[in-house]
Amino acid sequence: MAQVDSSQSREHFGSRLGFILAAAGAAVGLGNIWGFPTQAASNGGGAFLLVYLVMILVVAFPMLVVEMAIGRHGQANPVDSMRSLTANSIGKRVGAAVGWIGLSVPSAVLAFYSIVGGWLICFLLGAVTDVLGMETATAWFKGSSIERNLFGTITFYVLTILIVQGGVKEGIEKWSTRLMPALFILFGLLFIYIMTQSGAMEGLKHYLIPDFEKVMDRKLILAAMGQGFFSLTIGGCSMLIYGSYLSKKENLPKMAMNVTLVDTAVAFISGLVVMPAMFVAMQKGVQIYAEDGSLLSSDTLVFTVLPLMFDSLGLLGQLFAIVFFLLLTIAALTSSISMLECPVALVSERFNTKRTPTSWVLGGLIALFSVVIVYNFGELFGLVAMVATQYLQPAALLFCLFGGWVWNRHSKIKELEQGCPEFTQGWFGKLWPTYVKFVCPILVATVIWASFG
């Protein structure tokens, strides 16, 4: 089990499972439950799934090891961890700048993500009031008024801040070990329920049986690579900060692999639920695909198609709507706590401030930005989402280049040998330092280039 080093007062995760579930929780967000099935549905189902699984191992996993290793090596927030990779004074300055750019990613993402999280809370409450027959309340929760969006966003922030203020063990770890198993149980229930509906089997076949002709499609490969990359929040600082709370005794590649497997399992299971649900909805007369085979309303799939399916299934459908939106809210929260943890860790370490007020002040500042977005939704929401998910993504490339080129090979290997003495004896240990130096930057640059294309 991870113990706090006597030489350092830095808080560490209390258990391996706690770390794996917290880090996987940071990675598991709406990207897995909303983005992944949508991408799979748009890109030939099974073919996309197959390429995605390969890309996770080829691109995302080696990068995850780098990011977690940087955090554990630095034992600090992203800015100071990046500075610790080199003794060169210019290198330190550049490293700090990369850390600051990296930190801007979770803060910018949180600004629009919390609005979506707020919608989920409102849909969840709307599903509850629907079952209770409270029509006025249901109409308000499912509407899109500014007041309703504000209520949802602020509620989502309050929940996030309450968890983060508890610290690593009492906040993040405690809640991740409760929320993540709940996620899997709810998914299981939903899958069993949906598979009893007519049309579900066709959806399952479309999802699990690949059309091998599509596997080599350039668009599909880039979409799968991008999805795998964003799914594990590479370059988003969450993995770096969680890595810094990991004991030196732990086997880092093994931990990274466990996080990758849990994250991929959630994406895979969400596809098992959402794809059959789409085909059930099509049987009920809900239009999902356009004439040319492209997805209609891909960005609002979760908010339009699935509720329509639940509505058409009577009371049981309404109850499962509650389960579904609870599931999405949990997924959103496990990600938002890691996004807020990044700036909170920086400020509390740099200025020696107490965690509770720091969490509320920083959470409040980002919340103010979200409120501005809510009031100017049409002009700002899409813009902030695009800036956060596309224009700040080169941060991942900078982390990759820094981890591959600036951090010397000997120091990198020494860090990984701390919990895994036999690291360089296996093929992964022999290949990894060269791979992250040459192959990863090319793959990351390709994903970024494709997202602008």
TrEMBL record:
Record InterPro entries: Na/ntran_symport (IPR000175), SNS_sf (IPR037272), YocR/YhdH-like (IPR047218)
Native species: Vibrio ouci
Compartment list: Membrane
A Pfam short name: SNF
CDD domains named in the record: SLC6sbd_Tyt1-Like (cd10336)
Highest taxon of source: Bacteria
Membrane topology reported for the UniProt record: Multi-pass membrane protein
UniProt keyword Membrane present: yes
Gene Ontology cellular-component annotations: membrane
Main location: membrane
Sequence intervals crossing the membrane: 17-36, 48-70, 118-138, 150-168, 180-200, 220-243, 255-281, 316-340, 360-377, 383-407, 435-452
Keywords: Membrane, Transmembrane, Transmembrane helix, Transport
Protein name per the record: Sodium-dependent transporter
UniProt-listed PANTHER family: TRANSPORTER
